[in-house]
Amino acid sequence: MTSSGSSYDYDLLVLGAGSGGVRASRMAAAAGARVAVVEVDRLGGTCVNVGCVPKKLFVYASEVGREMHDARRLGWTATGLEFDWPTLRDNKTAEIERLNGVYRRLLEDASVEILRGRGSLVDRHTVRIEGAEVSREVSAAKILIAVGGWPNLPSEPGVEHAITSNEMFYLPELPRHAVVAGGGYIAVEFAGILHGLGVDTTLVYRRDLFLRGFDRDVREALRDEMRRQGIRLVFGEIIEEIRETPGGECRLEARLSGGDRLATDLVLYAIGRTPNTRGLGLENAGVELGENGAICVDEYGRTSVDNIFAIGDVTDRVNLTPVALHEAMCLVRTLFHDDPIPFDHELVASAVFSHPPIGAVGLTEEEARKVCGDDSVEIYRSHFKPLKHTLTENEGRSLMKLVVDKASRRVVGAHMLGADAGEIMQGLAIAMKMGATKEDFDRTIGIHPTSAEEFVTMRTPVGG
Ligand code: NDP
Hints:
This protein is α/β, with parallel strands linked by helices. The chain has helices spanning about 20-30, 45-50, 50-70, 85-110, 165-170, 185-195, 215-230, 280-285, 320-335, 365-370, 420-435, 440, 455; strands at about 10-15, 35-40, 115, 120-125, 125-130, 135-145, 150, 175-180, 200-205, 230-235, 240-245, 250-255, 260-265, 265-270, 275, 310, 350, 360, 375-385, 400-405, 410-415. Helix content is about 30%, strand content about 25%.
């Protein structure tokens, strides 16, 4: 437990009330610390306001149209249903505002003081807070920086006509045509959302295949699926210029590096995010930054200044909400319970909410061949038509893949493209975290008929 007898205003001052900052604030306050959190924007950060939560609500909405299409062969006559963008957008916004209130109450109930305004460091113990009306300085024994990241925009001409994921959640109207630039989580997810809502969608990515870092089989299977659904994929190119086309059929034109000109109503850039460290006054305290402006921390979240800590996307390591929550909990154990716990970034499962979604945990086949040696890896793969689609006209296929280290027999990678991939992958992540071997998977009895049972019924290695 903390001692509250210090001469500082607070034992812990947290900059940023996103997922990581709120969790750390509440847990530190529960441990007896005097805590305040500084936030200039809405409570809940990227995940709640312009990230995971509203995105997933949009994904659900985009799936309804596809379900209606499949429903016909299942005996339903789907008529009279039309999509209305303002209804989805405004219902989503109302839900997010409700969550903002939940976050406020959680903080208040934990006796965390919420300081409204933009915080910046004056020195290693002092933070200036510039509010709408007043500005003031507060002091703290320890400072935690959890201010997240911000979407990047390139410098190409006409970029002022483009938007980022931040604006996607509040579009005044749904475009008829959209171009999405990028090949990461956000680009792939929004290409699927827009297409599912009936928007003619093109994704432009600078390399040969999107989702770098995911298993190649899964990336190729998603590429084929998206093309089959009618999403235009342009690989090996970038947008070189965006210009307005007054009087044209579409509002904008995007000129690609290959020479094509795409008429479009919307250009969405999803080309990565940059840690939000500019203007934080970190130089006043001597906090070291990495090349891309990320705060450098050790495995306990300590920066180069021993009373200043950082967690979450501002450190640009594994930029996922559950990782920030985990880091917050480890940090509070370390600082306020005298129980130092290093962050554990091993075997973090994640999902891409594309259509269909991807779920993945552990090493890709390519990574495993590098780590374990080319001949020391066994691959199990199943590419199949899900039972549901044996009755619909949907030609979509699912892919499941296990990567096994031959020597230890441990399953070192699990990958899936198909319905509910994220839900399925969470259980596999537990097994893998416990060190499950291929034989443990084999002696687990499947649940029939499911797609998930494929993970315990694949017996013959590829090439075996
Ligand atoms: P990512 O880092 O996932 O991907 C960025 C993409 O943009 C890459 O394909 C990259 O290409 C490309 N890119 C980078 N710079 C340029 C450029 N100048 N011109 C053209 N393309 C460029 O970023 P996102 O913005 O998609 O997402 C940010 C983070 O948010 C992710 O890292 C993820 O951790 C998190 N997130 C997680 C989600 C989830 O868990 N489902 C959902 C959404 C976001 P290249 O591969 O060539 O580098």
